[in-house]
Amino acid sequence: MSDSSGIGLFGALFDRGAVDVSDQAWLQAMLDTEAALARAVERAGLAPAGSGAAVTAVARSGFFDNGALGAAAAATGNPVPALVRALTKVLPESAAGAAAAVHRGATSQDIIDTAVMLLARQGIDAILADLRAAAGRCAGWAAQHAATIMSGRTLLQQAVPVTFGLVAAGWLTAIDEARRDLHRVRTSGLAVQFGGAAGTLASLGDAGPGVAGLLADELGLAEPVLPWHTNRHRIIDLAAALTGACAVLGKIARDVTLLAQTEVAEAHEDTGGGRGGSSAMPHKQNPVASIVILGCARQAPGLLATLAAAGEQEHQRAAGAWHAEWQPLTTLLRLTGSAAAWTTDLLTGLQIDPQKMRANAASTHGLPQSEHLAALLSPHLGPLQAHDLLAKASARAAAESINLADALLTDPDAAAQLSEAGLTRGDIEAALRPESYLGATAEFIRRALAAHQTCDATVSPELVLPG
Amino acid sequence: MSDSSGIGLFGALFDRGAVDVSDQAWLQAMLDTEAALARAVERAGLAPAGSGAAVTAVARSGFFDNGALGAAAAATGNPVPALVRALTKVLPESAAGAAAAVHRGATSQDIIDTAVMLLARQGIDAILADLRAAAGRCAGWAAQHAATIMSGRTLLQQAVPVTFGLVAAGWLTAIDEARRDLHRVRTSGLAVQFGGAAGTLASLGDAGPGVAGLLADELGLAEPVLPWHTNRHRIIDLAAALTGACAVLGKIARDVTLLAQTEVAEAHEDTGGGRGGSSAMPHKQNPVASIVILGCARQAPGLLATLAAAGEQEHQRAAGAWHAEWQPLTTLLRLTGSAAAWTTDLLTGLQIDPQKMRANAASTHGLPQSEHLAALLSPHLGPLQAHDLLAKASARAAAESINLADALLTDPDAAAQLSEAGLTRGDIEAALRPESYLGATAEFIRRALAAHQTCDATVSPELVLPG
Amino acid sequence: MSDSSGIGLFGALFDRGAVDVSDQAWLQAMLDTEAALARAVERAGLAPAGSGAAVTAVARSGFFDNGALGAAAAATGNPVPALVRALTKVLPESAAGAAAAVHRGATSQDIIDTAVMLLARQGIDAILADLRAAAGRCAGWAAQHAATIMSGRTLLQQAVPVTFGLVAAGWLTAIDEARRDLHRVRTSGLAVQFGGAAGTLASLGDAGPGVAGLLADELGLAEPVLPWHTNRHRIIDLAAALTGACAVLGKIARDVTLLAQTEVAEAHEDTGGGRGGSSAMPHKQNPVASIVILGCARQAPGLLATLAAAGEQEHQRAAGAWHAEWQPLTTLLRLTGSAAAWTTDLLTGLQIDPQKMRANAASTHGLPQSEHLAALLSPHLGPLQAHDLLAKASARAAAESINLADALLTDPDAAAQLSEAGLTRGDIEAALRPESYLGATAEFIRRALAAHQTCDATVSPELVLPG
Amino acid sequence: MSDSSGIGLFGALFDRGAVDVSDQAWLQAMLDTEAALARAVERAGLAPAGSGAAVTAVARSGFFDNGALGAAAAATGNPVPALVRALTKVLPESAAGAAAAVHRGATSQDIIDTAVMLLARQGIDAILADLRAAAGRCAGWAAQHAATIMSGRTLLQQAVPVTFGLVAAGWLTAIDEARRDLHRVRTSGLAVQFGGAAGTLASLGDAGPGVAGLLADELGLAEPVLPWHTNRHRIIDLAAALTGACAVLGKIARDVTLLAQTEVAEAHEDTGGGRGGSSAMPHKQNPVASIVILGCARQAPGLLATLAAAGEQEHQRAAGAWHAEWQPLTTLLRLTGSAAAWTTDLLTGLQIDPQKMRANAASTHGLPQSEHLAALLSPHLGPLQAHDLLAKASARAAAESINLADALLTDPDAAAQLSEAGLTRGDIEAALRPESYLGATAEFIRRALAAHQTCDATVSPELVLPG
């Protein structure tokens, strides 16, 4: 077995996009943390000038053997002690004094937790970039298809009409909520971890809080009130924001799979490059992107549950619950990133069929709009009589597959009552047109687009720090 | 079987505190929503003057038969249609015109989702009140026990010293984070639901958004950008905030069960009123409050997973996923409320034993502070030699159960080196005292208390609306 | 608020069927355990003759005040100590000696765990009865509709044809697997719990194992190798079997919601008694039963996760994890029972539309069967040429919405090749008929029915013990 | 970054042991399935003689480029179509006829699901081998330490005495239950998947079921009643058995972390090779193996929830839910395997300290055995007076830290009553010795060992198939 692309058998599905939680990214994030700590220690006057630069110069994942570090992790329960030894060893003799700055004051958990924050930031930035693109596509549709009639569907049954623009506005608003939440977490929820063995930074004497502040500054992370070794609220908050994004993307993908059903056929995924197609069955266009999004998104709730359950951590540093976090959290980042990348792809290629949308909406013979006609008749006939008149005609329209207007006007009693109420055939047909029963649709689309502009201005796709 | 207290067999455990998600509370929340809608409809000029007041006057849970509503729910999948009929019927003849305002423009989901928001607000307020009390207790300890030495414990092993004040400050900071998050959700995450059959408010013509705004105003809930029938991001956000609080409370309870172990005995729960005690085994004081908190909190992650998975909802209103939310969400509110109430109780009664804390910390013969001595010796001996000297002495101290200072000073080589380094027995003993190796402890406590003051000022315990 | 039916607002949805985990059922199950223990103790010669009968006579839930027991639970973390006191007190003076038999040798967990086993047995029996009925309905369809053509659908796209009988056979086989698994758990997984304070039955001296055996005999439960206070494997096994059943029922309900879509319309739920119907929109028939089944079933995975996570229990009896089990487990029993009852209801009333099934299958112009024709042509043209010929014709058929046979025969090249291969129009049309491309359908249905007969013979609906 | 060991940064922790779900193992399992299918097709007479051998000869993971297959998966949602093309292409020209046997009748899901079954079998066998070793170690302790007194602990408080042999017997019984369940799943739950596009095997005409049977025979897997494309009961069953094993191992690891606490110190992990040790703090011996076991095991419930939720699959093959299974299931196999391997390691090296066990049990001054004395006094004093006498003495013993016997005999009233009851100091001290209050301990150990022998005979460590 070789692996020419490096993505493995399943990477194109579950590890698409720019989120990087590979071993190399993990290692580099730990090295970035150690390097930033060395610089902070130097800035605090606790190590010779140049120490920070010396450590930073060698803190490059390419200099280390992940396998050797991983093997050593079996003795300590994590790879940091071995990494610290290797990092110290790789310092050039000319910078031997920098050893005093390496890992100074830190415990393994400080390095791993901070590294996770760095991975989360890179991941969120990548996700936000994809979500921005996806939202932009939805916003385009919301405006363009503001009046494109389609059937609203509730409980998987056709109900009153909507427009595809409103559907897209719904997707847009949901994506924008997910973006705002991820932005909130990215801005204030990602904090440096630095507490030493038991959260007192004792080996730094009085200098601990100062170094912590400098470390936060070096990394561009928040400085927390306290070390959070066993206060995992921020991990749960982060995981929930990722899961919330997955839920939003899963909803969109679910809608597309339903709209793409052979019998509905109001949307289909791009089949460029042979995706989803089948030469043997040209009627079949598998909604591959939607399916993969669902395949990613549906893994999120279980991972979130694991992380939430891991929040119960003992004393100053936990025995097992902390270790149970690493893989679920980075898996969640990876899957959210993949779902976001696939969503951008899905929405970019998605084809809409307005004719089919209208045809499907028309297939129920105007019945969804009977409510509208009842409202017009009520002032004349009273609500009860109006309802009865329409219920009877609706039943007949459904039974005979004729239009509701015809069902009304070919019934002498009904025709007489409509006439008395001053409603002409034209009035009736107008009332039964889906266009005349859209309520707040246009206003809602307008609102969604306005909120989206604010979101785009607020949630800029954060720049990924070099690292 | 009778039930004199109305709490049932398990209510004192899993339904303690002021969160109310009983059937009666559900029903009243739905009625409050319908009443507010009637008032909003009247204010919008869509129903006769007095309609709102008339509906409000009869929208009292005591007027309805929950069982009959529940039985009718089998025909429609939810109890709202039956409630609307019953509510209309209970209007006095003199207010017959108010019927036009009842449920006007709404679909069942509008009523249930908005009712859930009201239940969530009442629940969060109750939880915040309990968390405020719990945080206050922790803040008191943080100040009072700022210097009370105890052993820091990592991986369930004694490590370097901390103080009980720092432990309490850690609990405090975690509770305050949970409070801020719940406050955030309460302030901006709880929004009215009002979209009608398919989210267009079609039956209200152009008046829909106006009524939605008035409804939000009547209920004091946020007005969302769009109806959120199938955008469940806010449900996941709410559930995550509750679960985050549970995780924090579970961590505290876990710590107490560990500190209360017979062999540790640094804390024990209040045994007033016979709680947790055993006349036959007076040495045994079961940490009942902690155990019940854990019993509540550990149910949260699974419920959160259910709610997150339910976020994938089809089209305009979902077929099943929405229904799967109701009980997990109110169960989560209930359990969080119960955990919070039990935590206040736990912390109010918790007894601390500073003597035992000190004794336990002393039982490791000063070894946790050897790191401190190494730091003092390093400038004189070099770090390597300092480390070796202490490692040898530490091994002997552990093996012979003698103090590290004695192990050092009774070893002629070591004694000579210490003497050369200018360290007297007094210096050594001072360095090995836990008090001299607390690092940033005092500063961290100060920070936690300062942040707590801000939190108290920001997150006021919201008033519970009558209802 | 009153409650004339006693089912509450949501009981008709989430607590339908015969599973009973009400407070009264809990209390009675605990009393049944205490009574059985008293009889066992008497049989072991450790209490006066008549003790068992005396305790049994008063062990009736109607004699106790659940609210008072529940209130007392706050002091001990569970209601058993209060129940034991109340049970002893309610013994008539004439049977005062029977007090020696009450709770003899037991700890609270013995009573609650054994009561849970009794609740589980009653619940499984109720579920099995409903599943037997549901399976019977599926078996009927499998036979009756063995040849009723419908479109097989993969990834929500029409694929090659199946029959509704095969779909029903698939449902049947899945239900039968769930039944066998529940039967396995019921038969061998439900065991008495009896270990005393720390699992040694010390207060019974040498008599403990004997009493345990008699207790198992009295209750008809298995006698475990050891008390299982902190070995929760059987709880996870039980919960998994229930969740497996929910998954099977959720799959069926999902299929029905999809088949009942307005645009598919191959099945619809019974609308008798107005269920799911809408007088205003007669085209709309909400699949209420399916939706409620999904609403129940989707709560199962999260509850299972909670129970699985609770399996990590400390030492001899756990501090919190055990308490976290009670409500999730009985909720899971309740929801599985409700889903099973709703499924029986769903399948009993489900209407199938074979004409619509055939029409939908025909709407893809024979393309799904092109594979069949390719197989017939391959020996003559070679597989590659056969494939190309059909791919070209399929593309044209899809583009022009004509039948594949016509697409082939109106293309001179294709017609010539078919003719050379000796295939007449009749041959071609026959090959493209769905009936001729069903493969193993009939055989698979036969197997499913045979396996079902075995299942019915093996998994009899167990009798519910009087309790 | 290089990776000399190939285990990556975290493999030594979360991917220890012989379970192999690497990309290479996945690929080989898919190739093994395709090869077996080719042989089955040949045996059924549907492909030229030698086809099976020809395909088998090239079905070796080393011949393929995982990255290229993975990249191609983006077009189809899974890597099988690309694999089939590559497999056909790699056939030598001399075996061109064998192409007719490749993937004959199959759909992608047939290959992936069957491959998962092969991975599961290999994984279960590896897990069973480790569990057998772990159980053997527990059985050894159960016999060896049958009389080694230690304190039974409930709710993390010392309760009545047990022996370490009984604790080990408890671990043993739990492991054996997990083994039996895994064995059950391995023996009857792992079934071949073979249904073709929609579960009818249509492209094989009448030959489908025959090929399915031969395929099952080739692979040594069960032949299911029906293809189980959207009946995922067996996946949930498999996942639950793995999670059950994780729960059992997590319980053992949790016990060890608690017993290894500095203040308890009744057990400690092997520190050979520097594991868990700290040269600076020789009193600290981190229970690394236990912590890693917990870190693995606590990820299982969330993964199980994901798999259970994925059980709701649409129609004939699902749109997303199936894809959501692959990684959680193989992750669960991997983590269970790692937990099992670490457990064997943990138990092999675990050091027990019987002296400390006895000392801890003695630290409660005989109070746990007061119940025993009460039983001896009851016949003479009546139960109430006996209880009161002991409660008073116990309270004094606890308050003054004296032995209960002394508390009794230095109280004149108590001494008199004891004397009247004919109990000498010797009798009292004997009754208060933990050894005299072990109840069924020895019998329970005997039973656990007997059941273990049966388990060893039944659940042989299955041979891992070459693969």
What can be said about this structure in brief?
The structure is a homotetramer of 467-residue chains. Chain A has helices spanning 11-14, 23-43, 51-58, 66-76, 80-90, 108-144, 164-189, 208-219, 233-259, 288-297, 300-309, 326-349, 354-362, 370-381, 383-400, 404-409, 412-420, 425-432, 441-458; strands at residues 149-154, 157-163, 267-268, 351-352.
Give an overview of the whole structure:
- 4 copies of one chain form a homotetramer.
- By secondary structure, the first copy, chain A, is mainly alpha-helical.
- In chain A, helix 4 (66-76) crosses helix 5 and helix 10 (288-297) packs antiparallel against helix 12.
- Chain A is built from 19 helices and 4 strands.
- Mean pLDDT of chain A is 94; it is low at 462-467.
- In chain A, the strands form 2 sheets. Chain A has a two-stranded antiparallel ribbon.
- In chain A, strand 1 and strand 2 form a beta hairpin.
- The first copy, chain A, folds into 3 domains: 11-101, Fumarase C, Chain B, domain 1, CATH 1.10.275.10; 109-191 and 229-360 and 442-458, Fumarase C, Chain A, domain 2; 367-431, no CATH class.
- Chains in contact: A-B, A-C, A-D, B-C, B-D, C-D.
- The interface between B and D is large, with 45 and 45 residues.
Give the tags.
homotetramer; 467 residues; Fumarase C, Chain B, domain 1; Fumarase C, Chain A, domain 2; two-stranded antiparallel sheet; disordered C terminus
Blueprint of the fold:
The structure is a homotetramer of 467-residue chains.
Chain A: H1 11-14, H2 23-43, H3 51-58, H4 66-76, H5 80-90, H6 108-144, E1 149-154, E2 157-163, H7 164-189, H8 208-219, H9 233-259, E3 267-268, H10 288-297, H11 300-309, H12 326-349, E4 351-352, H13 354-362, H14 370-381, H15 383-400, H16 404-409, H17 412-420, H18 425-432, H19 441-458
Antiparallel strand pairs in A: 1-2, 3-4
Helix pairs in contact in A: 2-3, 2-6, 2-8, 4-5, 6-7, 6-12, 6-19, 7-9, 7-19, 9-10, 9-11, 9-12, 10-12, 11-12, 14-15
